Amino acid sequence: MSVQARRSFPLRVEQVVRSAGEKAASKAKADAKKAPAPVEKRRRGRPQGSTNKPKAPVTLTPELVRIKAMIDALLQLIARVVPLTYLVLDGHFGNHNALHIARQDNLHLISKLRCDAALYFPYTGPYAGRGPIARMAARCSMGFFAQSDEKVYFRLSRS
């Protein structure tokens, strides 16, 4: 990437031909998204008797598996010569699974966020004396970034 010339150059390019299985899987996923099943109403709050469950392992899509293979091959090729810190991907990859493959290789992901991403400032106040230690403070709006360059934590909301 040339900052002075404001240009970037791809380091690795690969042609992708999707298999019939991948095409069928993406079509089935799109069809399932179109017709949601009716859900019966539940009472508010956590269901009685429910327990904490471990987080589900990250399942990579075939697209992310190909990108992971390209990243690994690129790191094998130039990691000793040029230390890489950041992975820049399109806005389509601003999600947890893409972040997971970047962190596996000790890279930081730079990508556009989803339009419904919830951004919070880090909590800097004292411990309240009870409960867990607060990590996030007030929610910030996008207009804030034009005025300041503070560090911001984010999480993708599931709404």
Number of strands: 5
What gyration radius follows from the Cα positions, in whole Å?
A: 21 Å
Largest sheet: 3 strands, antiparallel
Shape: extended
Class from helix and strand fractions: alpha+beta
β-sheet strand percentage: 5-15%
Report on this model:
The chain has 159 residues and is an alpha+beta fold. The chain has helices at 20-34, 62-78, 96-104, and strands spanning 86-88, 108-110, 117-122, 136-139, 153-156. Among the domains are: 59-112, no CATH class; 114-159, no CATH class. The protein contains 3 helices and 5 strands, in the order ααβαββββ. β1 (86-88), α3 (96-104) and β2 form a beta-alpha-beta unit. The longest helix is centred in the middle third of the chain and has 17 residues, at 62-78.
Q: What topology emerges from the helices and strands here?
A:
Blueprint: H1 20-34, H2 62-78, E1 86-88, H3 96-104, E2 108-110, E3 117-122, E4 136-139, E5 153-156
Parallel strand pairs: 1-2
Antiparallel strand pairs: 3-4, 3-5
Structural descriptors:
extended, alpha+beta, 3 helices, 5 strands, 13% strand, 26% helix, 159 residues, two-stranded parallel sheet
Short description:
The protein contains three helices and five strands; from the N terminus they run H-H-E-H-E-E-E-E. It has 159 residues and is α+β, with helices and mostly antiparallel strands.
